[in-house]
Amino acid sequence: MTEADFLKAYDPAAFPRPSVTVDLVLMTVRGGALCSLLQQRQDHPHKGSWALPGGFVGPDEGLDAAARRVLAQKAGLPEEEAPGGWLEQLYTFGAPDRDPRMRIITVAYFALLPEDVLARAVKTGSGLQLAPLRLAEGEAIDAHLAALGPDGTPLPLAFDHEIILKTAVLRLRGKLDHSPAPFALLPKRFTLRALQDVHEAILGTPLNKPAFRRRLLDKNWLEPTGERESGTSYRPAELYRVRQQEKRSVAVQGGMTL
Amino acid sequence: MTEADFLKAYDPAAFPRPSVTVDLVLMTVRGGALCSLLQQRQDHPHKGSWALPGGFVGPDEGLDAAARRVLAQKAGLPEEEAPGGWLEQLYTFGAPDRDPRMRIITVAYFALLPEDVLARAVKTGSGLQLAPLRLAEGEAIDAHLAALGPDGTPLPLAFDHEIILKTAVLRLRGKLDHSPAPFALLPKRFTLRALQDVHEAILGTPLNKPAFRRRLLDKNWLEPTGERESGTSYRPAELYRVRQQEKRSVAVQGGMTL
DNA sequence: CTAATAGTGTCTGTAAGACAATATAAC
DNA sequence: GTTATATTGTCTTACAGACACTATTAG
Questions:
Q1: Strand ranges (DSSP E) for chain A?
Q2: Would you tell me how many other CB atoms lie within 10 Å of the CB of residue B154?
Q3: Closest Cα partner for B157 from B117, B125, B129?
């Protein structure tokens, strides 16, 4: 056994290497619901089921770079531009049988994008869909998550992508209060009410307005622009923007702004 | 470009696959300090520097299984036994140049083990060391982390292992209050004082005793055993144990008990 | 003016920090 | 008893939830 371990450790080419991919959970909030971009599989295995967009990691490509590349390809985001999104490594899934064709280890990322960006991606690509995610009550990791189709019925999910989606939703919930990530779901200038709507959609529960406002403003992450929203038939709300410094300040391995 | 992408996605064998390893941050608290097991490299590259124990992921081996195997090999833990530790996937590091020999993507795990288990591992193996970790003040990810040798000077760390260690420490700090993981650093029965010492070592700051006690007991994770510690020259403290149910209850992708 | 929402003030309950008082075991 | 620490009680402060009140804009 020690001999075998020795060989294993010092002659890695002696046994087959796994393929490594990145899979992306591209999320946004639309119509008060947290949604994820899914792509219908055209081939076996899991033909017809819905999968996360992904791609193989190139031989000289970093993991973040691969995630950005897939994001650009699938979501139609030019890599050089700054659409104001968020990208963060989520978790790595590597069960030996997660793909029936061969051994594939996937590094899952999640991205947050403004609604219009993802809506445009859906229209551009084919077999794409922005599916509302419905997570059963309770924060347990073994709770069931459904991605709903246009008719409100759950879509069949390919591979282990339900677990990946569930992990993403729970991670996002956990980070809501401690990370500037959720701002990536809104345009550059937004009202506090819109931000609260985003939080409520992600948590799936209503929040107290004065408390929410206090909490957010006390963090000092936002600054008022002096401008107001327009087009309302009632009192327009102040537009806020994220302080420049907060776009850099990041928690533990906290992801990156796009 | 679309053609190239197509080939990339559908003919993964057409380009070389990366090697995939697991690296383990094996931590414990000793002498009031958070320590990690490090192994001195016997070969180039980084010969003489100190590295995290790790190993290649086998062709039919899951990531968690690989981490457990390396844990058993390096820390001398029999895989079947239940020493009361904690194992959790940390983050995946895959910069193309992180290893000069070849492309290696590593899935980092961190483990928490009682002090005596790791101390035994250090004595058994060779070139092993349990190094106190000192993190510069401030939670910033770009702060410097040093692993101290026996003479108190920082050890040179191999590859990107400083970043991995830093990530582990920050992750552990963040989970302290929300996860039953820290209990893995103590024996099965322990006093609240010992638990507070562990928390203080990890956070690097003293805590308020009554508040700590209230917080922990209010979580209802612990139950008194009715027994007292022995061998003290003063009033012995009550011994607590973790409720059985809490060993299962786990937060978001929260790791596993050993 | 009315309608509708923005934004604020205030009360209350919960939980943490600080500090002190009491309890208990070894000697 | 003394000593050292466990364990509990209490005061104060900070903050979140609840609710109501005031402000502002369109029409």
A1: 19-30, 33-40, 50-51, 54-56, 86-93, 104-112, 128-135, 145-147, 222-228, 238-242, 256-257
A2: 15
A3: B129
CB contact under 8 A, B59 and A254: no
Number of H helices, E strands in chain B: 7, 11
Q: Give me the tens of pLDDT residue by residue for chain B, a chain 258 residues long.
A: 444 554 455 555 566 899 999 999 999 999 999 999 999 999 889 999 999 999 999 999 999 999 999 999 887 776 556 678 899 999 999 999 999 999 999 999 999 999 988 998 898 888 999 999 998 765 566 678 999 999 999 999 999 999 999 999 999 998 898 889 999 999 999 999 999 999 999 999 999 999 999 999 999 899 999 999 888 888 899 999 998 776 655 555 578 887
Within 7 Å: CB of A215 and strand C?
Answer: no
Ordered structural domains, chain A, with CATH: 2-175 (3.90.79.10), 181-257 (1.10.10.10)
Q: Hey, CA dihedral for B94, B34, B169, B223, is it positive or negative?
A: positive
Measured between beta carbons, the chain A residues lying within 8 angstroms of B250 are 141
Q: Please check whether residue B62 touches A, CB under 8 A.
A: yes
Distance from C-alpha of A12 to C-alpha of B97, rounded to nearest angstrom: 17
Distance CA B144, CA B137 (A): 9
**β-strands A238-242, A222-228 pairing:** antiparallel
